[in-house]
Amino acid sequence: MSNENLFKALSSPTRIKILKVLVNEEIHLTALAKKIGLSKPVVSRHIKILEKTGLINKRIIGNIYLLKTNAKNIEKVLEPFIESQTIIVNKNKSIFDALKQIPGIEVKKQGSQGYIKSINDEKGYYIYEVNGVLPEKPIDEYQINKDLNLVIKKIVTIKKKSINIKLKDEK
User: I need a surface site. Which of 21, 71, 108, 128 has the fewest CB within 10 A?
Assistant: First the structure.
């Protein structure tokens, strides 16, 4: 996906509306058009542009096309804007200790476990990957014994399902 096509795709308020709807649900073109208040042909043209950039996926069930945001490609769109830096630590230090060296990253201990509290004052829930793998150890237990690439990701909640639970009438 070229930057030119990507920025063209993201430059339209209509396409942004479409992505906002599709990030929360998989939906048919007709229902999508109705939801955003535009005709099917207009929405279809916007969908083609978004598909070309890989920002949405089309799933075919018989003769029905269901549309959904391609979250992995949206994440890739942001990669050029990710802050990158190099730090030097002593062997067998923990990732927790390494992160304490970096301005803008706030790490805390709660009980015996360390965690990332915020990055650049943006509080939230963060996970980490080492060389592209999600470790099973908390950051204060992961010992650094060789050069590695550490990626920190903020967990952003995206609705996957909404469930209404009703109580049974007690008679």
Answer: 108
